[in-house]
Write a structure and sequence with these properties.
Blueprint lengths: L11 H12 L6 E2 H8 L4 H11 L8 E2 L10 H11 L3 E2 L11 E2 L1 H4 L20
Parallel strand pairs: 1-2
Antiparallel strand pairs: 3-4
Helix pairs in contact: 1-2, 1-3, 2-3
Length: about 130
Amino acid sequence: MSENPTGDALPEYAERVLDVAELIPPGRVMTYGDIAEWLGDGGPRQVGRAMALYGGAVPWWRVVRADGALLPGHELRALNHYREEGTPLREAPSQADGHVPRLDMRRARWDGGAAGGPGADGGGGAHT
């Protein structure tokens, strides 16, 4: 995750993605697709690109893949954050490569309702 690599103004879409990432409470996560749906714009790949290029200054570990796998190359840093915040995890099976746990998406996924944004009224971004 990098900060703004060019030092220029953030693209408007990236700024919107980062604003949502900052709303996610400690111990909770949203998927790339959840954020795209919340914004009503783009898709998981666009959100992922914005996070990859500009997400270093926000809680990037709270924006995740839908399968609960930890971000490749950042697993240990993310895992430290998850444990510190009490994010629900599923321990990896003993035969799994590296025994890296996954997020328990059923318990960790945030629907955005408490932030008062589009998910708060049940429309445009409510996820369970």
